Amino acid sequence: MVRDLTGKHPEYYEATLQLREVTQDLLDYVDASSLIIQKIVKVKNGYDYFLADNNQARAMGKKLQDKFGGKVVMTSSLHTKKDNKELYRVTVLFRQSGFKKGDEVMFHDEPYVVRAMARDIYLQHSKTGKKVHVRFTEMKKIKKMSKNN
User: Fold this and answer.
1) pLDDT of 48-106, one tens digit each?
2) Long-range CB contacts (< 8 A, 24+ apart) of 33-36?
3) Mean of the pLDDT values across residues 132-137?
4) Is 141 left (phi over 0), alpha (psi -120 to 50) or beta?
5) What is the pLDDT of residue 1?
6) Residue among 27, 97, 24 nearest 60 (CA)
7) Please, are residues 90 and 105 in contact by the beta-carbon 8 Å criterion?
8) DSSP secondary structure letters along 4-23
9) Cα separation, 29 vs 64, whole angstroms
10) What does the domain layout of the chain look like in residue ranges?
């Protein structure tokens, strides 16, 4: 359901989608989506998309994690009260990983292959076949191997 913005200020927004360290493919995907984008601001290491709908921001965060792999952090803060109802602004931070499914990576100085990226990152040891899962909060410990290794 698309939010009715009749009577709202032209820069009205309910959510911020923060995209950090992302590829152009990911930006193209977001730009081609049906999000109601009020404003886009370039920041030091990414972009902030100001959206008119909290639910769209949450859903896009999950879609980006499923499609591109990365860490999603969702927070909300009380913005105002209207008619005894508390209204919240949502912030969805998405930080893309530097690797994707099928990539060869190093984790704890051992070679692995990325098998899946869902709630966690699933790796399989290249030599022993042992499978491990790594939380997205620890994704900086995983390094993509260069083609020369």
Assistant:
1) 999 988 999 999 999 998 888 888 999 988 877 777 887 788 999 999 888 888 899 99
2) 33/60, 34/2, 35/60, 36/2, 36/3, 36/5
3) 90
4) alpha
5) 43
6) 27
7) no
8) P-TTS-TT--SEEEEEES--
9) 9
10) 15-96, 104-144
